[in-house]
Amino acid sequence: MLEFNYWIIPIAALIPMVIGFIWYHPKVVGTAWMNESGMTEEKIQGGNMPLIFGVTYLFSCMLALAMFGITIHQMGFQSMLMNEPGFGQEGTEIYNFFHETIAKYGQDFRTFKHGALHGFVAGLFIALPILATNALFERKSWKYIVINAGYWAITMLLMGGIVCQFA
Fold this sequence. Notes:
Elements: H1 8-12, H2 15-23, H3 26-37, H4 41-45, H5 49-71, H6 73-81, H7 93-105, H8 112-137, H9 142-166
Helix pairs in contact: 2-9, 3-9, 5-9, 8-9
């Protein structure tokens, strides 16, 4: 089996909060986002912030875990072979093949740069279509879509880089 540093998940899960604090600050795009989303200071103050941040952190942990499969190619290799008879049995042909291949290629493409590329592509091809679809049906503007998709592209770029490099 592949060995991973799963402690990177709670660390990478902090990235959406840090980037959100910067991105949605009034001096960056926060004022434009509030105007486009219809958000007011009163609505912000009226929310249960511990609950919102707690659930947000849980979702961020889920996204960080998903980044393993998106950014680390070796995950696909393992999942491709794991149902083969003898995969988990030491000494079998498939066991030896897997472990020899991982010993030789297990660290290939395990860089921040590579993970950042895959994270950005996921932001562009996963987050953008989901956000834009919802926003179009909610009759939100393209400015609203670009603000939120930009946040997720940057966030997923950084999460992908951290997970790929340090997991």
